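User: Run a structure prediction on this.
Assistant: Running it now.
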Amino acid sequence: MSLAHLIPPWMASLVPYQPGKPVEEVEREYGIRDSVKLASNENPLGPSPRAVEALGAALVGLHRYPDGGGFYLKRKLAEKLGVAPDEIALGNGSNEILELVARTFLRPGDDAVMSEQAFVVYASVVQAAAGIPRVVPLSDFTHDLDAIGAAIRRSTRLVFLGNPNNPTGTIYRRAAFEKLLDRVPRDVVIVADDAYAEYVEDPDYPKTLDYRAPGRLLVTLRTFSKIYGLAGLRIGYGVGPAELIAALERVRQPFNVNSLAQIAALAALDDDAHVERSRRTNREGMRFLDRELARLGLSYVPSQANFVLVRVGDGTGAYEKLLRQGVIVRPMGGYGFPEHVRVTVGTPGENERFVAALGKALA
């Protein structure tokens, strides 16, 4: 018997997220060794050494359930960010906070406004909650905040903003953000996805935590997956008004963040040296890629994150040719950029290998 009639239409039409293949499977399939993965915007230096040390000591406690309220991690984050612990929600990656927000605030038929070529999960969590994604085209690869403000209607409940935007790496700046804040109705939740904020060096970047204000429904999302190098443990958090966070807690599953993730995140917050090394590696790697991509005659989008969107002509074709040389990047056809690939900034050796392989692929 078919299950099709049991699945709501808004769920049946969802397109599943397409993850990349495991590195080991790529190497087996293409008969290569020592591949370089530059596809998922991970930290090329690996996890925080302090986090690794803390994990080793924590393994003997795996028979215990996690701290279901994230007491210690929330307390430490609150001290670091200058907020109250009850203004913080922990998630299985910041992706889970996106889902919690959609499930909490969307009713069937409500809409959420987002950029068209932004993180694909925004649209998927809205659709899974029977909401309607209302997409706004990018302007010069960047969020068009004027157009986003104009797209808000009486049925709008959420606005999603990725800054820097994935997959373009661009940012909107302080004046445009403040103008949008004045325009968003007080009953609309603004979801500021700042997953790559720690990499941004532009002084005009709006740090959304600075815009917390009474009566403003603004939730800032951050993650330990990027600069802290804990992507495999899946831990992120959201910061917002206590009343909003309490609403998310009503739909959050018990023990949603595992013990090891909490322990590693606690230790990583103290590892300022690792964060600074990661920033420096990214800064130097981006300069190298800027120079080498220009030498190859390729156009690319100037990025404030830890990745760069490069126009190669045939994105899928270039991806396949790079794979055969053991370099894994991400083709961007699914994001509406069929002529582009997205490449993560790696170590100096990884960046050099990518450039050499790309030159051969495009020859």
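The radius of gyration is 21 Å.
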